[in-house]
């Protein structure tokens, strides 16, 4: 798959609720996910697809999502692409509604996503 | 200046037409600018603020800008931030109107922008 193929597949998967299938299909098993800030207090990096899946599961359990949208992909050279994510969600524990927009950068090597990095407004 | 200070100053300068002052004030003299693709045929990288200024001058001479907007900054850790740019411009030579959106990633070291990378939709 070319960078454009992988980027299109990632975006299509996010649009159709197939984020977990994306992880198995498009990511290297040792891919690294890096948050914009150390929200959890346990550091910004998660190493490995299993850890990234656990992060998704935590998110799904902690937030109620009202709407989600994305824009992209935007390509850079032959090894990175960006996606803009928008989400309107409520944290279940606090009832706080948090509209969010963030930029994600994906690094690709040998036809797999090896690193995802999130940029946020804090 | 913190990363947030630099990011805010970059965005404010772009909003107020002070891109060239941004380059002198916020960039390392040897900063590198990397395009999404090799549009010019001369490579994707421009090294040094003087070269980046020449790129701005070329752009200003080649395009008529109808409107421009941006969103951000979005921060990542303590050394990078993203900005989303939107521009509606016409290439003077061809008369072709080209609405554009791109994501820019800025790398900061020792209080200066040392690298800017553009991500495009091609």
What's this, in brief?
The structure is a homodimer of 122-residue chains. Chain A is of the alpha+beta class. The first copy, chain A, contains three helices and six strands, in the order ααββαββββ.
Most extensive chain contact?
A-B, 26 and 26 residues
Quaternary state of this entry equals homodimer
- Unreliable residue stretches of chain A: none
Strand order within the widest sheet of chain A? 2-1-6-5-4-3
The proportion of residues in beta strands of chain A is over 45%
CATH level-two architecture of chain A: Roll
Helix content of chain A: 25-40%
Number of domains of chain A: 1
Shape descriptor of chain A reads globular
Structural class of chain A: alpha+beta
- Per CATH, what is the topology of chain A? Nuclear Transport Factor 2, Chain: A
CATH class of chain A: Alpha Beta
- Give the count of helical stretches of chain A: 3
Spatial extent as radius of gyration of chain A: 14 Å
Order of helices and strands of chain A: HHEEHEEEE
The largest sheet of chain A is: 6 strands, mixed
Average pLDDT across residues of chain A? 95
Protein described:
Chain A has a single domain, classed as Nuclear Transport Factor 2, Chain: A (Roll). The model of chain A has no long low-confidence stretch (mean pLDDT 95). Chain A is α+β, with helices and mostly antiparallel strands and 122 residues long. The first copy, chain A, has a six-stranded mixed β-sheet. Chain A starts with a helix and ends with a strand. The first copy, chain A, has helices at residues 3-15, 19-26, 49-62, and strands at 27-34, 45-47, 63-76, 80-91, 97-109, 112-119.
């Amino acid at each position: 798959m070319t960078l454009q193929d992988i980027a299109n597949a990632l975006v299509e998967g996010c649009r159709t609720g197939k984020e977990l299938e994306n992880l198995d299909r498009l990511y290297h098993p040792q891919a690294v996910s890096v948050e914009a800030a150390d929200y959890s207090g346990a550091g910004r990096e998660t190493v490995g697809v299993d850890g990234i899946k656990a992060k998704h599961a935590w998110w799904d359990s902690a937030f109620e999502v009202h709407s989600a949208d994305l824009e992209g992909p935007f390509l850079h050279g032959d090894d990175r692409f960006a996606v803009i994510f928008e989400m309107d969600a409520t944290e279940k524990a606090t009832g706080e509604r948090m509209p969010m927009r963030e930029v994600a950068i994906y690094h690709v090597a040998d036809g797999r996503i090896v690193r995802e990095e999130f940029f946020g407004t804090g």
